[in-house]
Amino acid sequence: MQESELFVNFAPLIFHGVKVKEVKEALERFAPLPLQEEYDNAGLQTGLLEAEVSGALLCLDVTEDVLQEAVDCGYNLVVSHHPLLFRPLRQVSDFTLGERCVRFAVKHDIAIYAAHTNLDNAHGGVNFEIARRLGLKKVTFLQTQDGKSGSGIVGDLTEAENPEAFMKRVKSIFEVECLAHNVWLNRMVKRVALCGGAGDFLINEAVKAGADAFLTGEMKYHLFFGLEGRIQIGVLGHYQSEQFTKNLLHDILQEALPGLPLKMTQMKTNPIYYL
Q1: Each residue of 79-133: pLDDT tens digit?
Q2: CB 216 within 8 A of CB 194
Q3: For 223-242, how does the pLDDT look when each residue is reduced to its tens digit (9 = 90+)?
Q4: Which residues neighbour 234 within 8 Å (Cβ) at sequence distance 6 or greater?
């Protein structure tokens, strides 16, 4: 084996000594923790800030399979969108997924960091990533106080689209197995509002913003009523709407910490199946 081959094979083990706290700082420069909602628990979930990072596995949800994937990769950091510790644990045993994941992470010295609603509300965050994939232009926050952060976004398509054709394109881009929608709008779709995940609280803001269509991951049944002819609704599924967050995390960390080994999980963590 040549010397160059040895260097390539072992480079990930000796790379540059980035610590967990540096990854945390990079993510929080982009999406400061004060941007998160009051109910949230973004930030460091497990692990030590001074630990050196062998690599970061990026995901939407923390599951046992994702943590095992990190171990198999030789990575000791998992960066997720959804917090593992969303609610306090009353015990650390093996009764729930959260308990098992915490025990696994501690046993294998895996640090877990979550960028959740702070990343949703940041400029250039989750909703901007969705908008980018749809080709929206002139994107602004749907609901904001300071203009620099906020909930949801609204923007314009380059060209107006037939409502059904637009939703079929959304379905294809986000690989949606079953897209829920209301009755077809009797006009073209040009202005689009959206919020990844559970964003139905913004439906009235979308109407006020003059949006022709509103996209989100979850929407309550009764909110569909009364909007016929006013706005086209498309409900993608929570996982489907936010699945590209791991790509966003990759871009943030690649720019902030060049050379840090990064990998997007290969696990499909959506717990919902369609018959």
Answers
A1: 999 999 999 899 999 999 999 999 999 999 999 999 999 999 999 999 999 999 9
A2: yes
A3: 999 999 999 999 999 999 99
A4: 167, 170, 179, 180, 181, 213, 214, 215, 216
* The architecture CATH gives domain 3-119: 3-Layer(aba) Sandwich (3.40)
pTM equals 0.92
CA 68: distance to chain centroid?
A: 21
Measured in degrees and rounded to the nearest 5, phi and psi for residue 112 equal -125, 130
> From CA 106, how far away is CA 87, in angstroms rounded?
18
What is the torsional sign of CA 252, 255, 257, 261?
positive
Residue tagged 């369609």 (tokens): 274
Locate CATH 3.40.1390.30 in the chain.
Answer: 3-119, 123-242
CA dihedral (110, 82, 59, 143) positive or negative? negative
Measured from the Cβ of residue 189, the count of other Cβ atoms closer than 10 Å reads: 21
